[in-house]
Amino acid sequence: MTNRQGRLFAIGSTAVAAILFLVMTLDSHRQFPELTNAENITPEVTHGKDVWHKYNCINCHTLFGEGAYYAPDLTKIAKHRGDPYLHAYMRDPSKFYNEQKHRRLMPKQDLSEKEIKDLVTFLGWVSEVDNQGWPPRPILVTGGMTTPTTMGGEGEITDADAASVTPVDSGSDPRALGEQLFSTAVPTCKACHSLTPGADGAGPSLGGLVTRTKKLLESGDYQGEATDVESYLHESIVSPSAHVVPGDMYSAGSTSFMPASYADSLSEKEIDQLVAFLATLK
C-alpha cells in the first residue's frame, strides 16, 4: 500500500466510524424518551434528583452501576423495598442496622419529609427506566440476603437473572414452581427473605415458617383473618398488613414494609404455587 493509499484508507475509515457513531448517537437519543419514561419526569422527580445530589448519595451508592461502590446500587431499590420501607429507612437508618454486626452504617442525613418523599419518587422513576439489564451482575443490598443465591452470585436476583431462568414445566409439582417464583417474582422474595433460620434481613427469615405460623395462630396475638397455615401464607402475600410482624425493620405502625403488589403482579395460580413452596418450610 502506497502512502497515498494509506492516507485515503485512514481518512475513509475515520469518516465511516464518525458516521456510524453519529447514527448510533441519534438513534439512542430517539429512544431515550421511551426508555426513560420521560413523560413521567415530574417536578417531584426533578427535585428528588436534586436531593440525591445535594446529599452526595453518589459518593457511596450507584445508579445504573455508575457512582461509588462503597454501598449498594440503588437502580431497582424502589421495586425491591417499596415506598413505606424507603421512607422509614431515610428518616432513621440506624433502626435497620446493628453497628457491631454490619460495621459500616448509612449516616442519618436529617432530610425533610418533602425531601424524603421526592427522593423516593425519583428512585421510583429510576426503577422504571429500561436499563436493558444494566448493571449485569447481582448486587448485594445490605440488610437483605447475605447467602449465595442459586444464580451464582451474592445478593439480589437481577432482572437479567430472572429472564435467564429456565421455566419449570407446567406439569411439575406446584412446590417446584413456587420455589422458582420465590427467586423470580418481582419484587424478588429472595431480596428480603432468607430461608436460613435466624438469618433475618430486610424481611424476617422464613426458616421454620410453618412452625412459627402454627404457634402464632394459636397464641391469640394474630390480627388477621386466616384460619390455618395455608390461608395465613396466602394472606401474607396478597395482604401483608393484615398481620404486622413486630419490629421497626418490618413495619411502620400498622403498615407492613412488604410490597402489597403481588395480588396484581401474580396470578391466583402462581400465588397458590408460592404458598405450596412456603408450606414446605417446616
Automatic annotation (TrEMBL):
<keyword id="KW-0349">Heme</keyword>
<keyword id="KW-0813">Transport</keyword>
<dbReference type="InterPro" id="IPR009056">
    <property type="entry name" value="Cyt_c-like_dom"/>
</dbReference>
<keyword id="KW-0472">Membrane</keyword>
<feature type="transmembrane region" description="Helical">
    <location>
        <begin position="7"/>
        <end position="26"/>
    </location>
</feature>
<keyword id="KW-0479">Metal-binding</keyword>
<dbReference type="GO" id="GO:0046872">
    <property type="term" value="F:metal ion binding"/>
</dbReference>
<dbReference type="GO" id="GO:0020037">
    <property type="term" value="F:heme binding"/>
</dbReference>
<dbReference type="InterPro" id="IPR051811">
    <property type="entry name" value="Cytochrome_c550/c551-like"/>
</dbReference>
<dbReference type="Pfam" id="PF00034">
    <property type="entry name" value="Cytochrom_C"/>
</dbReference>
<protein>
    <submittedName>
        <fullName>Cytochrome c</fullName>
    </submittedName>
</protein>
<feature type="domain" description="Cytochrome c">
    <location>
        <begin position="43"/>
        <end position="127"/>
    </location>
</feature>
<feature type="domain" description="Cytochrome c">
    <location>
        <begin position="173"/>
        <end position="282"/>
    </location>
</feature>
<keyword id="KW-0812">Transmembrane</keyword>
<keyword id="KW-0408">Iron</keyword>
<keyword id="KW-0249">Electron transport</keyword>
<keyword id="KW-1133">Transmembrane helix</keyword>
<dbReference type="InterPro" id="IPR036909">
    <property type="entry name" value="Cyt_c-like_dom_sf"/>
</dbReference>
<dbReference type="GO" id="GO:0009055">
    <property type="term" value="F:electron transfer activity"/>
</dbReference>
